[in-house]
Amino acid sequence: MGNLVRFKLLPGNRYDTIGVAPLIDGINFEALLGDKAFDANWIIEELDQRGAKVVISQRSQRKNPRAIDEEIYKWRHLIENFFCKLKEFKRIAMRACKTDRSFEAMIYLAAGVINSR
Predict the structure, then answer these.
(1) d(C-alpha 88, C-alpha 93), whole Å
(2) 5, 34, 100, 110 - which has most CB atoms within 10 Å?
(3) What is the predicted pLDDT for the residue at 49?
(4) Residues 47, 29: Cα–Cα separation, whole Å
(5) What is the average per-residue pLDDT within 71-90?
(6) Predicted confidence (pLDDT) per residue in 15-48, tens digit
(7) For residue 87, is pLDDT > 70?
(8) In terms of residue numbers, what domain contains 53?
(9) Euclidean distance between CA atoms 103 and 99, whole angstroms
(10) Which residues on neighbouring strands pair with residue 54, listed in sequence order?
(11) Which residue has the higher pLDDT, 13 or 39?
């Protein structure tokens, strides 16, 4: 429902797709919602093998675009809303923590506060 389940902190100079495999490992789900950054063939193949529905906005240069469920895709706003709530915490928005470990701890703490509201 748009709340944090699991996250992986990545270097700022890496693609978003690098973090997908560790995030979905060991989790059963019916669909994966994502934006164009997650439109990678290996992700789509993995989801097809799992039997999960692919609800990822397609890049314009894809030769064979897949049809996506527009009604389910509308639910992506819950994820975007969570990021907006997370950025209300100044230390996260400004990346004020000195180490990755303390930044991860702040994200978990903020997510706990958001979930308790």
Answers:
(1) 7
(2) 34
(3) 92
(4) 10
(5) 88
(6) 778 888 888 888 888 988 888 888 888 999 999 9
(7) yes
(8) 16-116
(9) 6
(10) 32
(11) 39
Question: Tell me, what amino acid is at 77?
Answer: H
- Whether 9 is in a domain gets the answer no
Residue 1 lies in a domain: no
| CATH number for the domain harbouring residue 46 | 3.30.420.10
Residue 64 lies inside a defined structural domain of this protein = yes
Which amino acid is it at 69?
Answer: D
Q: Are 85 and 114 in contact (CB under 8 A)?
A: yes
Tell me if 50 is assigned to some domain: yes
Task: Report how many domains make up the chain.
Answer: 1
Tokens 């789900």 locate to: 29
Partners of 55 in beta bridges: 33
What is the DSSP secondary-structure string of 33-74?
A: EE-GGG--HHHHHHHHHHT-EEEEPPPTT-SSPPP--HHHHG
Angle between helices 77-86 and 100-116 (to 10 degrees): 110
Q: What is the pTM of this model?
A: 0.72
